Amino acid sequence: MTAAPRIMMSCDAIGGVWQYSLDLCRTLTAQGSVIALAVLGPPPGPRQRAQAEAIDGLSLFETGHDLDWTAADPRRIEEAGEHLALLAAAHDADIVHLNSPALAAAADFPAPVVTVAHSCVGTWWDAVRGGPLPADLAWRDELHRAGLDRADLAIAPSRSFAAATAAHHRLARMPLAIHNGRVASGASSRAMHDFAFTAGRLWDDAKNLATLDRAAARLSVPFRAAGPCDGPNGEHIDFAAIAPLGHLDDEAVADRLASRPVFVSASLYEPFGLAVLEAAMAGCPLVLSDIPTFRELWADVAVFVDPRDDFGFAEAIDRLIGDARIRIERGDAARIRARRYCPVATGTATMAAYRRLLDGNTLPARARALA
């Protein structure tokens, strides 16, 4: 296939998948693709609509269907997949790109399906809780696995997460690893301020903020955290030492990062870690939990600490705060490494995967099923 493929892509407007989708769409439309972007879950806000409308070759569709992780039962997810199949047919799509594998579990799509496993409850549970999944998560996990199996190509945002996904779901094929990317905020660096900083879903046990709160109590500098303290299902976290800033928009986070604080993540589970990438792009030194994904992306750049070691986090933060030369060197190294992870690289690799699939170099699932 020589012409750029027409694409039907699913997304949501309430998490990092929205930013991933828009960044990817900008790169793909610049190469000539025409894209129907179908939003599941809550509709995008006015600012998000404006972002989408600014991309030539992109049409935005609101489906009104539930997200896979908020749906009350499997049938809701199946209905969403069926709706997307109809939209793909109406769009005359050459590629169906699903940002939730569960959507591919039951629907029959009119074009090859590429699905991206950005995260999943099963691998989250393995890393954070361990043991058998509870019933409400088990059926979601099974739909996720079925979608990965039925897709013509599965993608993961890191090699580490691809391996974890393949192991948990007992996949016959390893997902293709294509690293995520972000565009630098453009905010100018300012004089360094002495504080530690983290950002993300603070309520999520996978982010392991309890360990960082204990570390913060041992620091001689403030520890500030941006993000919600309350989750969608009643989750909540309180802090004894960390100063929570609440939800901050991208500009406000970039403003904090421009002061090049020590950026810290104690995550137990990260398929990629966009907050870390944003901090690195700003030139912040990184203190990260020693987990496979962070080792893959930030080896020889970050300071690594056992994720449960609050003493170790406090010591690493204080050491960087107390030595300006090392702090600057680490921040510069992080900024250089971050250049690898850009939307153009993500989009170029994704387009190459589409073309291999359409040119027959990757055997589609439908052909495998009939072989």
TrEMBL record:
Which GO molecular-function terms appear in the entry? Answer: glycosyltransferase activity
Family matches, as PANTHER family:
SULFOQUINOVOSYL TRANSFERASE SQD2
In the UniProt record, does the keyword Cell wall biogenesis/degradation occur?
Answer: no
One matching Pfam family is Glyco_transf_4
Coiled-coil residues are none
Which protein is depicted? Answer: Glycosyltransferase involved in cell wall bisynthesis
Sorted alphabetically, which keywords does the UniProt record give?
Answer: Transferase
Q: Which parts of the sequence belong to the Glycosyltransferase subfamily 4-like N-terminal domain?
A: 14-178
